[in-house]
Amino acid sequence: MNPMMLLWTILVPAAAAALLALIPSRVKVVRELLAVAASAASLVLAIQLFGQKTLEWRPAWMGGGVDFELRLFPFSAFILLALAGFLLLIAVYSTAKMKDHPHVRIYYALVFLSAAMANGAVLSDNFVPLVFFWEGLLVTLYGLIAIGGKASHRTALKAFIISGFCDFCMMMGIGILWAKTGTLTISQISVHPTGLFAAAFVLMMIGAAGKAGVMPFHTWIPDAAIDAPVAFMALMPAAFEKLLGIYLLARLSLDVFKIEKGGAMSILMMTVGAITIVLAVMMALIQKDLKRLLSYHAVSQVGYMILGIGTGVAAGIAGGIFHMINHAMYKCGLFLSAGSVEHRMGTTEMKKLGGLAKAMPLTAAGFTVCALAISGVWPLNGFVSKEMVFHGALETGYTGFAVAAWLGAIFTFASFLKAGHSVFFGKPSEERPAVKVKESPIAIVVPILILALLCITFGVYNKLPLNGLIAPVLDGRVEAGAHLDFTSHALDLFNPVAGISLGCLLLAFLLHAYGWKKGGKKPYLASEPIHKAPGLKTIYGWAEKRVFDIYEQGVVFLRGLSWVLFHGIDRPIDFVYEKAVTSVGGAMGGLLSKAHNGRYGNYLAWCLGGLLILAAVISALV
Amino acid sequence: MNIETITLLTVFVPIIGSLTIPLAGLISGKARSAWSVLLGGATAFLPMLLIPTALGGGETIIRKEFVLGLDFILVIDPLSIFMSIVSSFIGFLIIVYSLGYMRREENQNEYYLLVVLFIGSMMGLVYSANLIFLYLFWEIIAVCCWRLIGFYRLKEYVKKADKAFLITFFGAVVMLLGFIQIYGQTGTFDLTAMRGAIIPGSAVLLILFGLFSKSATVPLHTWLPDAGIAPTTVTALLHAAVLVKIGVYAYARLFLYGFRLPGAWPDALPIIAVVSSLIAAGAATIETDFKRILAYSTVSQIGYIFLGFSVANTTGVNGAWLFILMHGLAKAGLFLCAGIVIHATHKRDIRDMGGLMKTMPVTGAAFLLCSFSVIGIPPFGGFFSKFMVIMGTVQSGRIALAAVALFTAILTMYYLLRTFALVFMGEAKVAAPEKSFSMVFVVGLLAVLSLVSGLLVAWPAKLTTAATASISWWLR
Asked: H or E stretch including B381?
């Protein structure tokens, strides 16, 4: 196959983006057809490339090691396929959901531009094109959030700056790596993370994990859930950014840096993962809006992936990567279902909904499957990948991380019981908007159902993706002797680890039932006992006031520093020019003009004085 | 045409031509505008003919003997060709934009004369290899600049123009002292004859004083934000095309092409550049005047160019050359967008604006795209330049400085996008439509060029690689 094919995966969506931007807003059908056709073409291309397995294209670019190197290998082919699949689903979904959006033109263009950038980032085998595409996603991120509504540009700025910070950290890491190894070609670098390389790894980890939305770089995601179009949420934070971030993180810790089980970097990653799981799910639990709740889960689930990859053992890494693709499927499905509800009801606030399952059975079914999958209910895909992460975490010997992961599982299920109960089941709320509810159009429902089906398939027939997609990634990259036979990990129901997981689910159910009773049988109040628990209440209060928001605190810092720089350095310097120099000049002038008072004797005295000085100087020199 | 003729024409067509602009003005306003555009266009077109020469990497020297070491020497190498293309091209676009912007002003004869003379002197300066001629063109530019900043002739404005003139003039005179000291040591003003010579530290200090005053580096920078009272076309010219780039170009010409830096200077300069960049970015964050924000942003970005040159490795220097181009395009775009907004709303404080995206879609989009380029976000051109400069800094072992430079980039992100949000997003406070076609066309073109220069970065990179190679004979 011609290696130029790799370029087409970037050019096809990019050309589609350009065309979509040019079609006037009034023309609807052509735009939608074009969008679906272009994304279908991308998918076909990705499938062909997936069959190809390996392909390299390394044309020169700027010289000096900066070359436009693209490389297809099993891992990138897998991610490419996933990206194209999600693009097609979102394109179909958008034909119904985004139809009447005022910025529909920009929306489609940016979506396809994102796809082009994401494909480029996945294929890059040189850090410069990688950063080029990776950071390029900032532009589409900003645009896609900003078109959400009147006030959404604030959230866009927030997302841009947080992601920009992460990207700049990665750039710094690349700089160190380049300076130390002398090459930018990713597949040629393999170093031990010690000394400066450890710093490089941490910096690049911030870049990769920050893209995936790990704490504390997540705070824009819940805000965007409210401000940005829901299709954007399903596309970027739920699917694309997870795929990209975890893909890069896996490559960094498998290929570029040799992360060893029990090493400092491994512990660091597991800690970050565990903290993210627990804290984000605690926030998710108390949310009152379905989209915000989902967005916190999008953060929390990243924790599992990082925890899994950070274990440095085969089961954990495979679990982390498997969790990435599983999460992309069910979280995308969940956001799309939320969008479907929003499409009919005009709101996603839980207390204003309820009992929608009757009127929207397909959406409800899709939501339920995806919600059970994310909660890790057997035999869905989330169960399998979470089990693998639990096993991996236990295998490292640090039981604490496994406990954190289980804790996360409890609250995940509890919050989805609350969400499903208050939106689709239970009694309709009195505040429910008085609209005639019916199932959403087919273009909205079909993507949800496809994703739900995939969740079932990947769970029941988990050997299929594990052997077909994940095993080639790990092939030859885990320590010798570690076998890649997934059957050995007993991913079935009857082992102690699975027993604990199921116990967690039971606990979550009891928690929900208790909260539901306590809250006067209003499901959206089911999390209140935890929200109002002594101690937690104060912390939740701070979190809701954004005390822990890195962006809010960062802006305070930036403005404070700027104030000091401006009023402490810049203005004093200007004062010297404006006041000191001019007044000294004025005074000198005044003095001289006083000396010229027109008296003859005075001038004679000046001359005499000057003559004396001259004579003194000359006699001193001679 | 051979190389020599092209170069001489590049320098003298605008300089002599500018003097004929008032004559054209006698005929009619239209004739004057057309003649000015023609002169600007010719100046922009001529150096482009030299691109093949630049890519070849050779060096041609034109020398006309004269007494007292005042030989008229022009050096035609990738450095001078690259710089003259960037300056004259952006200058030309600004002249086109002026057609709309200055349409209703008085004294247009003087305006166009000074602008074309300004660009012409820049060409002279870029190609000069004699320190005295360098100084001469330097001062012609200062005089043009002084008249143009105070173009509106209000008392307060003239004061600011005087401030700009006095600071840069003072710097230039100090620099001249440095040149004389060098003459005392080498016995020549000819730069080509003193390549690789080590010059005394005091001369370096004197010359740098001049460079920093011209390129508005902290602490000699505050005249530049104050110069924002000039017509926006002039500010764009100062910031993007000509004035502040002189300092960095002369740095490359003198200290990378010419003599070597003694003692601790190679270590001190990157620190000065980064600190200057950070302070200016902080000031830009606090300012609320549209043009002053952009002015401080220029000071901040110039720091990156200095940083790239001063770390003196291939990556850094290459990045700095690219930076001159990318920053020129994007910053010209930002200022000209600001010009459209200020022209239409008659407001300068960004807190009084808002929601202009509705009425000025092209301007708003262009502003956003140019902001992305200045911040250094791909796929825009500014990404490559900033990336290379920072990579060069890391390669030279200055990791902490690179980190500060990246932090400054985050500040840049914050203040530019906040400016965009305040001016173009949110509730509309004043509704003002875009008016003149030539103005909107130019900002749109600059935004597109910022994008294209990123997508097709390999082409300008060829030129900058040649420019870097031509001075890399002493790069460590």
From this structure: helix B381-395
